Amino acid sequence: MIDLAVANAKQTFRRMQEPLSERGIRVHHVPVRERTIALGDPPWDPDDYDVGFVYPGRLMEGGVADALLEIPWLNDHETVLTSRNKAEVIARLERADLPVPESVYVSNDVGEAELTAVFERFDPPVVVKPNSTTRGVGVAKAHDLDSFLGICDYLSLVHDYKATGDQSFLVQEYLSDATDYRVMVLEGEYVGAVERRLPDEAVAEGQWKHNVHRGAEATGVELPEEYRELAERVADELEIPFLGVDLLETDDRLVVNETNARPTIDDETKYEPDFYDRLADAIRTAADRQ
User: Fold this and answer.
1) Entry pTM
2) What Pfam families is this protein classified in (predicted)?
3) Cβ burial 175-204 (10 Å sphere, 16+ → b, else e)
């Protein structure tokens, strides 16, 4: 048996526990956030685990886990950091001629004249997106220049606290009425996808973000081959073993919106039939890197 350390939220841990156990992998929940850890007397013994699932999302806690567990990860620190840097992902995909939204990277502090010039590059509304947050946190839509500058002012206030580290954000075109897909790629191959859709009442109230953590519903879908191939090309370009690729589809465009190297595992029925077989093989391969 292989012993797998999983730092993800309990939802993912519970879903993967039984299917992986049936394939010779014991799954252990090893949370590293929102707890206390005595560094000289940690709650884990490195000999208890062979491999980690994906590196913790809070990078400081991840460093502690790395030092105390002494294990390789399916998705390691570098891959999680790459995916978390939204601007880097967009820039790398753009350079590889993969379709992405028109985007401008802003590193604070930036003056009002420069911000106005950024806004005027787009047909409003625009999306303002903190560069390294997840789950749609801090993402806003601005319909006019005053609203846009106000959002930027709020970001500047947050960034006045220098310990936040990342003082940058993206300004992107808004793709109205886009269909939102989360496509899963494992070791370069498509393993499933969901469409994320807001309930009608949420849309009527003006909600527009399709994050599941914001109330969107994820429904398993069969994607066209070209959509699958695009997601696979993204994972290959970023060199991330297990990746969620967010695609936005409009009437005439398909673009890569974001990526997630710490994707939540959904219900098994939303993936290809051999998903857990392939995930177990990938975990064994990662464990061999020890």
Assistant:
1) 0.90
2) RimK
3) beebbbbbbbbbbeebbbbbbbebeeebee
Q: Are 12 and 265 in contact (CB under 8 A)?
A: yes
Q: Comparing C-alpha atoms, which of 80, 97, 101, 56 is closest to residue 258?
A: 101
User: Which residues does residue 243 pair with via DSSP β-bridges, in sequence order?
Assistant: 185
- Return the residue matching tokens 């009608």: 200
Neighbours of 242 (CB within 10 A): 25
β-pair type (242-249, 254-260): antiparallel
The model's pLDDT over 107-148, given as tens digits with 9 standing for 90+, comes to: 988 899 999 999 999 999 999 998 887 766 778 999 999 999
Residue 199 has pLDDT above 50, yes or no: yes
Ramachandran angles phi, psi of 275, nearest 5°: -55, -50
Q: Which two tokens stand for residue 93?
A: 């995909």
Enter the tokens of residue 53. 């699932």
Exposed/middle/buried for residue 81 (C-beta within 10 Å: 0-12, 13-18, 19+): middle
3-state secondary structure the chain: CEEEEECCCHHHHHHHHHHHHCCCEEEEECCCCCCCCCCCCCCCCHHHCCEEEECCCCHHHHHHHHHHHCCCEEECHHHHHHHHCHHHHHHHHHHCCCCCCCEEEEECCCCHHHHHHHHCCCCCCEEEEECCCCCCCCCEEECCHHHHHHHHHHHHHHHCCHHHCCCEEEEEECCCCCEEEEEEEECCEEEEEEEEECCHHHHHCCCCCCCHHHCCEEEECCCCHHHHHHHHHHHHHHCCCEEEEEEEECCCCEEEEEEECCCCCCCHHHECCCHHHHHHHHHHHHHCCC
Predicted pLDDT at 213? 59
Q: How many other C-beta atoms can be found within 10 angstroms of the C-beta atom of residue 156? A: 14
Round to whole Å and give the CA distance between 220 and 183: 10
